[in-house]
Amino acid sequence: MSEKLGAGERLYQAFIRRFVIVLCSFCLAAAVLAVPFSLAWLYQSGDLAIDRAIGAQEGDGFALYGPGWGLEEREAQPYKLKLYAGRKPDVLVLGSSSALSLRSSVFSGSMVNMAGTASSLSTLRASLDAALRIHKPQAIILAVDFWWFSPAWEKDPFEERSLPRRELQYGPDTLKAPWTWLMHRRISLGQFFAPLYGGFREDRFGARAQWDSEGFGPDGSWYPLARLTGDEQGDEAFADSLSRQKYRLREFAPSGGLSSDAVDAFADIFFRIKGRGIRPIAYITPVAAPVYDAMLGDDASYRHLFDLKNALMARGIEVLDASDPRTLGITDCEFLDGLRVGEVGCDRILHELTNRWPELLSYVNMEKLNRVLNEWPGHAWVRDERVSDAFETDFLTGGWWKAASQPVPPPPPPASTPAAPSSTASWA
What we know:
Elements lengths: L1 H44 L4 H7 L7 E2 L7 H15 L3 E4 L16 E3 L7 H12 L6 E6 L27 H4 L1 H7 L5 H4 L11 E2 L1 H6 L2 E2 L5 E2 L1 H5 L9 H8 L13 H16 L3 E6 L4 H8 L6 H4 L1 H7 L4 E3 L21 H14 L9 H10 L53
Parallel strand pairs: 1-5, 2-3, 2-4, 4-8, 8-9
Antiparallel strand pairs: 6-7
Helix pairs in contact: 4-11, 10-12, 15-16
């Protein structure tokens, strides 16, 4: 009996050894194959191809750069600065993502949109300094967010920030990205194996651009197509923004008053631009009307918004207060969410800026601007088939209506109409 048990034990140990050897060999082979696969995936998708993307966007070329990493300043800055260096525009747009939908198509001169590189006054200064080291534009449009002026948002608005970091390179963190995106269902299995069957588009750079047609256009403006078409869950009826305001989260944190240091810091930026012989034009970014009204109902917590215009004017800074969108005729449907206005809303702001400061007229194509405002009211974007032939969805009701060039959009269908399913999970 003991001999039989000994033979069985030896057989079991031999099986375990073989299993471990096979498993280790499989893992080693997988590791050896995974690295070149990730390299091929990232190269073909264009997620690390800033120079290739900008090259494809030169001249009359149209391409989108929409990396899968995200839209934080550290991802946007290297691309925007290289784009700016190549364009050397007459007009520069600076601000947070609230101004990303302002496009060069309504400008007669050259324009680069570097919005999305300034989430605070200190990062606004850093982006401005980096841009001015490259090129001196004729005018700079500053999209000013109210939360920059809250003492709770930034401790030291005069802080000297370091230059934007270099763009992402091939390395351990980037090589694991396709696998991470697959695991988190940001890409499908078919999209993961796209390098094996040529599933990447030549005029799209980055995972977002490849499959969602989301990305930065040749002027640096952002095309949020997944949000516009309902493939990505957004701020339906401003529910998320209103909830954040109600619970005083993030941008809606109560301030206890307007920060005089922040006002001084913005004045320093504004007059630094003016001192360089550049025309600064500033506006306070709009908030969706329901959100604005909710803030007005708690005005003591948001003096950094309601006192901001007068505080800037007292420093000698002329500014357009667009915080209440109704003063400019911007409707709820022209917003992307509670804090970000869409393309048509941005054009309404630009139209008012030309009324206030006529010197801006030499850079704006008023015929195109007026055509947009006449043909696309109530829309968040002007449909561009180079991006997609999809239709815009009405995020206020959850129903669908076609974003055709009509003076007034048709009424939405019954609320029971289902939204189009999303092919990939949200990148937000």
